Amino acid sequence: MFDNLSDKLDKALHVLKGHGQITEVNVAETLKEVRRALVDADVNYKIAKEFTSTVKEKALGQDVLSSLKPGQLMVKLVKDELVKLMGGEVAGINLSGDPSIILMSGLQGSGKTTFSGKLANFLKTKKTKKPLLVACDVYRPAAIDQLHVVGDQIGVEVFSDREEKNPVAISEKALAYAKENGHNVVIIDTAGRLAVDEAMMTEISNIHNAIQPQETLFVVDSMTGQDAVNTAKAFNDVLNFDGVILTKLDGDTRGGAAISIKSVVNKPIKFIGTGEKMEAIDVFYPERMADRILGMGDVVSLVERAQDQYDEEEARKLQKKIAKNQFGFDDFLKQIQQVKKMGNMKDLVGMIPGAGKMMKDIDIDDDAFKHIEAIIHSMTPEERTQPSVINASRKKRIGKGSGTSVTQVNQLLKQFDQMSKMMKMMQGGGGKRMMQMMKGMQ
């Protein structure tokens, strides 16, 4: 996400980050590079030009040139303007109404049906709602099937009527069904087209007028860049939607849509899709996104994801096992599963300040834990609870069974042993001792 833009902005601001003399000339040169980086990322030229003009005006007005750390101040100005450009404040979702009605709109292929499922899952797990998904795409039977598959996956009921060909009638029936069956949120997945056309706009406008939704959301594929912004404008002119959903932000995207869509349609980005899993949905925080674009990481989101997967009861059991020296490979496997639930590995690394830059050329596969899991699954229950029994012949068998080598098995055993010792040290009064050891190593 934003890798190319982050690189180019970093290079553009590099001169000012140094301690050399900063002049009005190199501020102008730097901002010219910033503008070029934004345009390359598919940000509309007019928006990029206005952005750099505002930053320049503020930089010269705030005595950046004579400040002690002009580079840092300049980066802050760029960040503040980026935050403003992307909407400033985080925009919440309107869940008033009984039930709350959310109408999803967008072109075919934008990820609308998948995102309807992600949103339903988010509202079910994070907001303790009882959502109902409604299939209103009467043109593609596959779209109805897809929504049912998604609903089954997340344990959310799907309302569909394959005999009815009028999407307004389907949505009205779905509302009546939701009221009768205690669903407090109704998410209506509408038909998309390959391009904006009059028939599509009339249809979604009719649904909108009939059901009067609390939220009308426009789902857009961020990988389509400037086209996405233009499509959003066409939809907004007809629907006057409440917010934007950006999907496929985990792809090799230039990010221009995320940066410029708010200033074109004057509607906030409410959520972003960051992967294929049903949990890969994030509330859009302009400030956190600006930090990531400028390579500053996003520790808050990383901590939030970790907390989402934190199980207090499991943590207590784990603590007892560590104290009794009973931490085994089954426990290790559980820890791996929790990390995997946090999301795409490359995305997680990008949230650590500086790490994204350091590891940009390293391909972090989502299957990074695959060989570790295979090795553990090839162990007997005894070997998992008492790794000390694993001798040379057992290592050979485990390697063969997991499709790995004895070297990899040895490596895992060594890492596991080191981790167990460290955890044991952290548990006891060894926290201070560990700090002393680390100081001694410096």
Quick take:
The chain is α/β, with parallel strands linked by helices and 442 residues long. The chain is 58% helix and 9% strand.
Fold and architecture overview:
Part of the signal recognition particle protein translocation system, which is composed of SRP and FtsY. Its EC number is 3.6.5.4. Residues 268-281 form the SRP54-type proteins GTP-binding domain. This protein is of the alpha/beta class and 442 residues long. It folds into 3 domains: 3-85, SRP54, nucleotide-binding domain (Four Helix Bundle (Hemerythrin (Met), subunit A), Up-down Bundle), CATH 1.20.120.140; 100-289, Rossmann fold; 306-441, Signal recognition particle, SRP54 subunit, M-domain (434 Repressor (Amino-terminal Domain)). The chain has 21 helices and 8 strands. It has helices spanning 3-17, 24-40, 45-61, 70-85, 112-126, 141-154, 167-180, 198-211, 226-239, 256-265, 286-293, 299-308, 312-323, 329-341, 345-350, 355-358, 370-377, 381-385, 392-402, 406-427, 430-441; strands spanning 100-105, 131-136, 157-159, 185-190, 215-221, 243-247, 269-273, 281-283. An 8-stranded mixed β-sheet has the order 3-2-4-1-5-6-7-8, with helices on both faces. Strand 6 (243-247), helix 10 (256-265) and strand 7 (269-273) form a beta-alpha-beta unit. Helix 2 runs antiparallel to helix 3, helix 5 (112-126) packs parallel to helix 6 (141-154) and helix 7 runs parallel beside helix 8 (198-211). The radius of gyration is 26 Å and the shape is flat. The two termini are 35 Å apart. Residues 429-435 and 437-442 have low confidence and may be disordered.
